[in-house]
Amino acid sequence: MKADINVTPLVDVVLVLLIIFMVVTPLSQQDKEVTLPTAAQGEPREKPEPLVFSLTADKMLYVGNESFPDAARFQERVQQELRARPDRKLLLKADETLTCGDVLGVLQQSRDAGALKVSLGISMRKN
Q: Helices 100-112 & 71-84, crossing angle to 10 degrees?
């Protein structure tokens, strides 16, 4: 009688762990942690995080994970954020399959809410 070790479950677990690490690693690499020198004088350079809102391929509008089915609620949320921090920037991330009219509609809604500038999110092509 010969005893063989079945390595198939081990290979499955290793592949699942590899996939998990491949997905999680790029998300955790924002900036490298360094200790900055101190100074007696200077001006604070803290930039507030932009308010990121997303327009999905099915034309659903989200701020974070919260969906906004109508323009009035979206505009109310933008006004609320701008009242709290007037210097906060807005960033629109729209799906590439949307038309210019879809994106312009959301830009107009944000302008109607009082936003003067809205940046558009893009991804850079890799050569």
A: 50
Is 0.90 topped by the overall pTM? no
State whether residue 10 is helix, strand or coil. Answer: helix
Q: What's the pLDDT tens digit per position in 62-75?
A: 887 888 888 889 89
Angle at 16 between CA 14 and CA 18, to 5 degrees: 70
Residue % of the chain over a pLDDT of 90: 13
3-state secondary structure of 74: helix
Amino acid 94 reads A
How far apart, in whole angstroms, are the C-alpha atoms of residue 74 and residue 113? 8
> DSSP character for 41?
S
